[in-house]
Structures are given as C-alpha cells and as structure tokens.
C-alpha cells in the first residue's frame, strides 16, 4: 500500500516540471536582474507552489543577480497588479513578477513581469506538469 502511495505521489504533475530554469529565464530581457516573485490573487497551495517553482527556476538559471519572494508584502487577493508593483517599489529589485493560477481541466499559471515603474515587460503561461516553452519558441 505504501509503495502504491509513493508511486502516485511521484507521478503527480508539478510546477517544477513546468517552470524549468532555462525556459523560465528566457522571459527575462537581460541577465543579472534582481527579481521579486509574488503570488497574486486568492491564496492557494497551487499559486504558492507555482510562485516558488518560478523563483527556484530563476535562481537555478544563474541569469539573475538574486531572486526574492513576496511573503513580506501585504498582498490582498483583490489587489490589482499595479498595487502589487507599487508595494514592491521600495525593494532592491529590477523586476516584479506576479503569478496567478487558474484551475480547470488543465491548471494554468500566468506570470506577468513588470518593471519597478509598472511597465509590463513580459508574460508567460504554463500548464501544470508540462514544460514551459522558451520565449520566442
């Protein structure tokens, strides 16, 4: 019985399989950026997991100066992106990456990347368990 449970857990799709370092970092417009990754929208384990997978992928890519997460920000589920970017303005980062997940037959994570000034610079969308396509692919 324990072996069956471990096989099911091992086969479960993950956001880590979606957000690989090389593909995720391809959405950055240049190397050596400092990034904050923030889980936006209603708090859910899936959104938190997607945000952590993106943060880890960016760290592992070695294309960032550093990556921090937005736990210290007081983000509310109804906060629009502009408010989240504004809250991040005092952080020593170049980009604010906001992640939201959308349930459905195939769960999707959408990440929007903003400059500290609030300009949208890129976006990516990935399906749970399926590798993200590199930017421009």
Explained architecture:
By secondary structure, this protein is an alpha/beta fold. 31% of the residues lie in helices and 27% in strands. The protein has five helices and five strands; from the N terminus they run H-H-H-E-H-E-H-E-E-E. Strands 2-1-3-4-5 form a five-stranded mixed β-sheet, with helices on both faces. It is globular and about 40 Å long. The relative contact order is 0.23. The mean pLDDT is 92.
Question: Which structural class should the secondary elements be placed in?
Answer: alpha/beta
Shape field = globular
Q: Note the run of SSEs as H and E.
A: HHHEHEHEEE
| Strand order in the largest sheet | 2-1-3-4-5
Figure out the total of helices.
5
Low-pLDDT segments, ≥5 res: none
Question: Percent range for helical residues?
Answer: 25-40%
For the termini, the CA-CA separation is: 43 Å
Quaternary structure of the protein? single chain
Largest sheet: 5 strands, mixed
Beta-strand content? 25-35%
Q: What's the alpha carbon Rg, rounded to whole Å?
A: 15 Å
Mean pLDDT, as a whole number? 92
Number of strands: 5
Report a brief summary of the structure.
The chain is an alpha/beta fold and 137 residues long.
Main traits of this protein?
137 residues, alpha/beta, five-stranded mixed beta sheet, 5 helices
How are the SSEs placed, and which strands pair?
Layout: H1 2-11, H2 15-18, H3 21-25, E1 33-39, H4 45-61, E2 64-69, H5 81-87, E3 95-102, E4 108-115, E5 120-127
Parallel strand pairs: 1-2, 1-3
Antiparallel strand pairs: 3-4, 4-5
